[in-house]
Amino acid sequence: MKKTLLLSSILALSLQSETIKDIRFEGLVHMSPDIAKEITGLKRGEAVDDLKVDASIKRLYAQHYFDDIWVDDQDGVLIYHCKEKPVVSHVNVEGLDKDQSEKTLKEAQIKKGDLYDATKAKNVKEKITKQLQDEGYFDSSVKIEEKPLNSGSVETNVIVKKGEPVYIKKVNLIGAKHFTYDDIKDRIANRQRQFAGWFFGRDDGKLKADQLKFDAERIKEFYLEHGFMDAKVYPPYLKTNFSDYTATLTYKIDEGEPYTVGAINVEIDPTIANPHKLKDSFRLKSHKVFDVTKLRHDMSQIQKVVSDKGYAFASIVPDVQPDKTTHTVNITYKVQPNKKVFVHNITISGNSRTQDSVIRRELYLSEGEKFTRGDLVDSLNALKRTGYFNNVQIIPKQVGEDQVDLLVKVDEASTGSIMGGITYSDGYDGLGVNAGISDRNFLGSGIELGTTIDYSQKRLKGSINFNNPRLFDSLYSLSGNIYRNDYDYINYKEKSLGGSLGLGRKIGRNLHVSLTYLYEDTELTDVNDSLKNNIFYQPGHFKKSSFIPAITYDNTDDYYLPRHGIHAAYSLEYAGVGGDSKFLKHNAVIKFYHGFEDQFDYDLILRAKLRVSSMEDKGFIPLNEKLYMGGYGTVRGYKYGWLAPKDSEGNLQGAKRMATSSVELSIPLVKKMGLRGVAFYDYGMTGENSFSDIKRASYGAGIEWPKSPLGVPLQIFWTRPINDKPDDRLHKVEFNLGHRF
Length: 741
Fold this sequence. Notes:
Helix content is about 15%, strand content about 45%.
C-alpha cells in the first residue's frame, strides 16, 4: 500500500462538517463503479466520517482486487483512486516437463485470467521448491519474473533450475534380526543404489523424499504379514553428504517375536451365514503364522457374503487377542449386520452419446430392490463387457439407515473406427489395400454396424455385418452379415457369396444361446488339369445351407482388456439343410484371464486359451470348409492357414481335426497411453483323422494397444517358430488389427 490509511483519516477529519455530494472512482478496470460504491457502504447526503471512510477502504481491499487505494475530497466529492492488481495474461514454466508444470500451477492456484500479486508468486515458488525436494532434488532454485503488459496484465515467467539429485548408497536396518534389506527392498520406494543402477530394471537409488514417511509404514506392514505383531519401525534417519550428493538411510526396528494363530471364531447370526462355512473360506488358519493381509482378506470374505444377503452396511470388527507369553493370537470376527439396504435412486452421468436405456439394461440393480455387492459387481462387469466405455464406476451413497443412491459414471469410448491401409506380400498376393468402417455403438443405441473390403492383385474380400445384442432392450439378440470372397489361387479360382441371420437370447447373467442360419454359394473355375481328378477341386457351384446352434458363457470384467473371468463358447454347424455341403463341424473355445495386481501390486495379466475343432463327413466337405492352422488365432509365426494335410503334389487338403492353445503374459509399458508388452507361447495340432498328424509351436513377444486411436485393438508380434519344417512358410512379424485374445 503506497499511502497509509492514516492519510485518508486525516483528510476525513478536516472535512467532518461536510456532507458527501458524490462518490467517484478512478482506475477501475475489472470492477464496475456501481459495485464499488455498494461495497463502500457510503451514500450521498451523509456526513463525511473518518471511521466510515477507513472502513470503506478496508472493505474494498477485502475484495482482493487492489494493490493500492487512497481517497481525495473535492468539495464533498469523494474520489477513490484505485490501482488494481494486474491480470495474469500467461504463465510460462521453464525447467519442468509439461505434466509437472500443469500439476504445480494447479496446486498453486494460478492460471490465465487470475489476479496476480506477490502472494501468488510466493505460493508458486514454495510449491515448486517443495515438489523438487519431494522428488529428491536439493539446492534447486526457482525464480519468478514478471513482465508487465498493456491494459493492466502481466506475463509471469517461472524459471526453474533443478538441483542435484541425492542417491542412497546404503539402507541400514538397525535391530533387525529375522530380515535383511534384501527381504524388504521390494516393499519400499527408497532403495539403495545398485551397480549399473541406470540400467532398466535396476535400482537407481534416487531419493524420493516424499515417500520416506510411508516407507516406515511399509516395513511395519511387511512385519505384520510375517507374524511380528509387536514390531515397531521408527521414523527413518537420513544422513546426506552434500559434497557428492549421496545419503545413508537408517531405520531402527524393534522386531519382537512372530505370533501364530490360535482359535478363530465368527460371531454372526446363523440365519444370515453359517460361521463354519465362512471359516472354511478363510486364508488365515489356526497354527499358522499370523498375516495381516490374510486377516483383511477374511474380513472381505465376510463382507461379501453378508452384503449378498442385503446387509450392505454391516459392521465387521476383528477382535484380536494376542498372548505375549505364548506368542499366539486368538481372533474373533464380530459381525453386526445392521438393516437390509435397498436402492433408493439411480443416476447416470457421462453418457453424452449412449442412451440411458442401453446402460440401465445392463444393471442388475434397480430402484426399490435389495442392494447387494454381488449385483453391483455383476452390473459393473456387464457394462465393461459392452465395449462402449473406457471406464465405468458405480458409486453407492448412503442416504438413510436402509437406503442407498447409486451414481453410475461412465467415460464413453470411441466405438467408431475408420481403417485403411496398404499391404504387401512378397509371395503370391503382391500389393493390396484394405479399408473398413464400423461402430460398436451406432448412434448410442448399442447396435454394431460394420463393413470391410480387402483388395489385392489376387483377392477381393468384402463384408457388411450388424448385431443388435439387446433387441428393443429385451433379452433377445439379432445379428446378420453378407459377404463376398474372390480368390485367384495358383491352380484355380474361387468365388464365394454368402450371408447369415441369427437370433439369440440371454439366459441369466452370463449365458447366451443363439441359432444362426447360413447360406453360401461357392464357385470353382479355371481348375488346373493336375487337380481335376481331386474331389476337392471339381469345377462348378457348391452351395451350403446350414444351421448353427451356439452357447456362450462370459463373466469377464472388460471388453478390451479383461483381467478376470472366463469366456467359453461351443457351436455346432449342421450343413445339409439343402445344398451340396453335408457335414457337422464342432467348435469349442475356452479363454481364461487372471490379473495379479491384488497379489503383487503390479498389473500383470495371465491369459490362456484352448480351442478344439472337429468335423464329421456326412456326404461332402468342401475344401474351404475344412480346418487350417497357422497365423494369429492358432499358431503365430506360420503363414495363415498353411499348416494342414497336403496331397502328393503339395496342394492343401485341409484337416478335420485341430486343437490349439495359447498362453500370454501382458504387462504395462506406457500406462498413460495404454500400451502393453506381451510374451506368448502357442502350440497346435491338426490332421485329417487325428489331432497329432501335424504339430507346431512358437513363442515370441509383442506390443498391444487394447484401446488404440483407431477404435479397435492393435497388436504387433515378433515370432519365433520352435519345431518348423523346411517347407513351412514363416512370418517373423505379425500385425493384427481389430482382434482380441
